[in-house]
Design brief:
The chain has 323 residues and is of the alpha/beta class. The protein has 15 helices and eleven strands. The chain folds into two domains: 224 residues, Aldolase class I (TIM Barrel); 70 residues, no CATH class.
Amino acid sequence: MVVITALTEALGLEHPIVLAPMGSVSGGRLAAAVSNAGGLGLVGGGYGDHAWLRDELSVAKAETARPWGVGLITWATTPETVQLALSYEPHALMLSFGDPRPYVPAIKEVGCKLICQVQDLAGARAAKAAGADVIVAQGTEAGGHGATRATLPLVPALVDAVAPMPVLAAGGIADGRGLAAALMLGAQGVLMGTRFYAATESLGHGWAKERIVVAEGGQTQRTRVFDVVRGYEWPEDYTGRALRNPFLERWDGRENDLTAALDTEGRAFQEAEREGDFDTAMVWAGEAVDLIAEVADAGELVRSIGKEAESNLRQASRFVRSD
């Protein structure tokens, strides 16, 4: 049995599974591993470091035999960064957290698929009007930056609002059960981040991966603390979900005090990031950490998640009886 959706048909995928473009985590090797296993790997462009992007996009292009792509933070990107990404000929480019319209003509001109990640109905309608090919409905359960709507009610609402445009579900999904459930909600696939953070090929620090493996969903929290200490001025609609640690507990609710102490706290935080001190540095992670029991190869994850979803979909008929 093969799961066939509008996403798999549009991009020639074997599995309707997309790697979330996590900044500093979703590098070229991870994207290539996901794509080569039949999903869609997206390199995480983050805040647009051109040197980093050149290195990782080169790896993705060289090592990927199937469709792949790149994701950028919309409010932080520039036309130059978009053009740099497009110069590596990705099959898809994902824009998240901001107005995609300034970049749509350049993306469409080269025949690249535009994926827009949104967090509410207004964002979905705006992305559709802007010319998106695929929309990601990101629920608040997701790791990293996001908003406040929960995945379960958000996905079908967006499916109805932008039909017949394909919608992907994101947030709180880490296995084949989540993929099967998303398809039942009307999604055409899923975008997964935290599960692939804890993949062998991810650029995440080994100790960060270990923390994800042992964490529980209740140990994650949405916060602005880690943006404040790094000096990133994210739009106020978006917070980041991370594992709680002593640094977050110290400064949660005291963001103004942290801003005033940036001269010392900022330098100390940068050192903690370099040293892999995750009592201070953040580990972006979603509520689905409960479902992650080990660090595994990304290709095997794609195949096993796809197989589990197929099994769940086959068994769904047992809930229906013909009278």
